[in-house]
Amino acid sequence: MHIDELDTPHLLVDLDGLEDNLDRYQSYFSAHGIGLRPHIKTHKCLAIAHMQMSRGAMGITCQKLGEAEVMVAGGVDRDVLIPFNIIGRAKLERLVALTKRTRLTVAADSAVTIAGLSAATAAAGVTVGVIIELGRGGRCGVETPELAGELAALVDSLPGLELRGVMIMPAPPQIRPFLQECLAQFDARGLPYPMVSGGSTPAAFTAHEIPELTEFRAGEYPVGGMKHLQLGTHTVEQCAVRVLMTCVSRPTAARAIFDGGSKSLSAATFADDERGSLMGHVVEFPEARFSGASEEHGQVDVSRCEPQPQIGDRVQVIPVHPCPTFNEHDIIAAVRGDLVEAFWPVHARGAIR
Ligand SMILES: Cc1ncc(COP(=O)(O)O)c(C=O)c1O
Asked: Which residues does ligand 1 sit against, CB inside 6 Å?
C-alpha cells in the first residue's frame, strides 16, 4: 500500500529510522558489556518489542503491571522489570500471577511497599526480585544511602523476596558518587547487588562512564522525538515516530490548520529559545512553527515557510514526546519510503494500571 492511501491523521513509524536506532543503541550497549533493557512504555507495541529482543535486549522494562501482562502474553516474556512501587491487593494478586509466567523484578522505595510484596508472594509460595529505587529528588526513590542499605536489608530478611540490587532514574554520569555511596551501604551489610540499573535515553551513550551499571533502561531511543532532535541524539531521519496530517484550512496568510491536534500528537510541548512553545516538528516545512493545538486542530505559524503548505497538502509531524503520542493511537503504519509495510496495533495502549 502507498502512504498516500492512508487517511489522516495517522501514526507512522519509519522502519529505516527505527532499525537504525535499534541497531546503534544495541551495538553501544553490547560493546560496553551493559545489558539493554528497553522500556516498552514508549511504543507499547509487541512487534517493536520483539525487534528489540531479537537484536540482543536482555529483557524489557514495563512501567505498569498492565503493560507487562500484555507483553508477556505476546511472548516478550524472558525477563521483566517493573520500576514502580506496587501497592494494594488488586495489583499484588496480578503481580503474583505474573511471577509464574516470567522472571520478574520490581522496584521499591519504602518498607510499606516491601512488606506488601513479601506478604503477597510468601502467601502464594512464589518469589519476586526486588531492587531498591534510589532518587535524587523530583520523583520516587530513597534519597539517602543509609535508607537504601536499610531497605535492602529488609528485603533480604523477608520471605518471598530476592534482593537483586538498585535502580536510578535518570542516570547521567553525575549520579555516580551517590550510586557508589548507596552500594557501599550494601557492601557494609554483605548484601548482593547483581542488578545496577540506570536509565533515560539522553543519558544512554554515557552509561559506560558509570562502570557500576550492569544494565540500562531506555524507552524513547527507537523512535526519538522533537526533544531528541533538539538535543542532537537523533536526526530528522532517526526520529521515526511521526503523525501524518493534512492541511485543512488556511485562515490567514500566516496560519495553517492541520487535522491533528492534542488527540493525535498529545499535548506535550517543548520550549525553544528562539521560537517559543512548540508541539511538533513539521518535516516537509522545517520553518513552520507548530505552536498550539485543540483536540483535533493543529495551529501552525507558516509565515516563515517558502513555499507554504496549501489546503490538501499532507505533512509528517514529529511529536515532542513519543510516549503519550503512541498512547493516543490504536494502530501504527510501519512505513519504508513511500510504502506501508505493516500495520501494528499499539497493544498496551491505555494499560495504566
Ligand atoms: C523508570 C524509568 N526508566 C527508564 C525510562 C526511559 O527513559 P527515556 O524515556 O528517556 O527513554 C523512564 C522514562 O520515563 C522511566 O520512568
From this structure: 39, 61, 83, 169, 199-201, 217-220
